[in-house]
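Re: [help] complex structure
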Amino acid sequence: MARAPGDEEALAVAFAAHERWAFARAYREYASLLYSVAYNVVRNSEDAQDCVADAIARLWRSPSAYSSERGSVRSFLVVCVRNEAISRRRRQSRRLHLEERLAAMPVEHQELDAGDPIERDRVRSAFAKLPEDQRAALALAFYEGKTHTEIASELKTPLGTIKSRISLGLRKIAGALGPDGVDR
Amino acid sequence: MNDAHAGERAALYALGALDDADAAALEAHLRVCAECARLVGEAERDVDTIASLQTRRRAPQELNKRIERLLAPAPARRTPWPAFAAVAAAFLVGVLPSAYLWERNRAIEDAMLSQAAAVDRLVATAHRTASFRPSRVALAANVMYAPDGSWYVIVVRGAQHALQVAWMHDGEQTMLGDAVPHGGVAMLYLPKSHRMEQLALMDGPRMVAQAQLPY
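Output below.
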């Protein structure tokens, strides 16, 4: 559900001031989104819960992590949780062989929905419209959680070029999906 | 352009494509650079736009409870009386108590009374606050201090073990005391009679954060 702009600002100010109620409210509002974002990276309920809890705990211990210049509290939390999940996946993949990961038992979870197929098509279509070099770099970063150095090595492209491609690609794809497409 | 600024790393950070060390360095920079914080905020919205269109799942109840516990208010601060009672009990019941134990309890008691006095003074008097600029992200520390330099309270969150507080002056370093963590927060109260313009947090020989104290 869309929030009134005033609500969002009040939450951002209180969140920046490290108010307990703002953390609790932000979690309540975005709990399923944050859990889903983590789950979509680690593909495991227990790890996804750890990622959300670890990210929130880290922020709670770091009063100056968020400032109002950062903008949306929701987007800030999504990225914090997602980055936590990506770091965890990298650590795990260093430990586990691919075969072991495939053999891991899937944990049951409650799906709210399987993702709106129209929205998924929009994402796919937005990716498809990117120039090939930007699409490859962005997909490796977004879907495979690779670092820019790993992507540069995999695509045999200089690091600076990879940075530019990812940066440009992200702006284009978010522009194509647009604010109207997402319930913020 | 200063290398510390986000630039194109804003998108990489928001996508999780920086390695841990680069991400930590950028996070530290974002605490002090509003322009880069704004730039990263824009990239975060872009990533949120894409991530939000992926499959949604309901957050499990156990996760909700975990976060609830994490954000629950800490139990109220104990009054000095139980500590006094502990000292008295140690003294009386301990037909055995050694002088060492008694001295140790008294030191703890003194520290508690000293910290309680600091908090009382904070509530009652005007004070200033300055942040320590950490060299590692997990640490968040502030110093509250009297404008006349008569007292200082250093509060450190995220410290895993005791950190030493040092006064940096005239190219020298004067150790002032240890901030010892209890429940994730370390506090050190320093009654003083002069203004200190630069403090540092030390982890052994290594400086982990410093603060400038304007008057």
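Helices of chain B lie at 9-15, 20-30, 34-51, 61-71, 80-92, 99-124.
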